[in-house]
Amino acid sequence: MSRLILVLLTGLCLEAIGVVFLSRGLKEMGEMDRVSVAEVLRLIRSGFTNVPLLLGVAFQAAFFGCLLYLMSYGDVSFVWPLTSLGFVLTTLAARFVLHETVSPLRWLGVSLIVLGAGVITYTEKVKPRSEPAPAVQQEHR
Question: Residues with Cβ < 8 Å from 96, sequence gap 6 or more?
Fold first, then answer.
């Protein structure tokens, strides 16, 4: 269980860092002036050469790797909701790294996410353990 939590926390940090880089990269690229093939190609070329955007994609891919590991060893009903804690780290990163204004109502929403993740963690702790299936004996003829 402690290994799963460590991988989860690592993954959530990778996700938050990735979102910060993605945001910076996309803001550097600028907005689409008009919808045209030339403009779309310009944005694609810009994206392939934008270091923060590429770093963001790499960090998100690393997070996805952690998620795959978690889902292969833990219950999906436990692991997947806990990934919502990434919203907490991402909101903190948005506030303190990207210097975004985060309203009190938004912080309340983040607090509710933490509360929900706490309930899910508690349900994993009190979950009844299933007994191993009895070995099936084969009849000899």
Answer: none
Query: Terminal CA-to-CA distance of the chain, rounded, Å?
Result: 45
Q: Contact, 17 vs 93, CB < 8 A? A: yes
Instruction: Give the CB-side neighbour count of residue 101, counting CA atoms within 13 A.
Output: 1
77-99 per-position pLDDT tens digit: 888 888 888 999 999 999 999 99
- CA dist 86 and 8 (Å) reads 9
**What's the full length of the chain, in residues?**
141
Residue with tokens 């402690």: 2
Would you say 106 and 35 are in contact if contact means Cβ atoms under 8 Å apart?
no
For 48, list phi and psi in degrees, rounded to 5. -75, -15
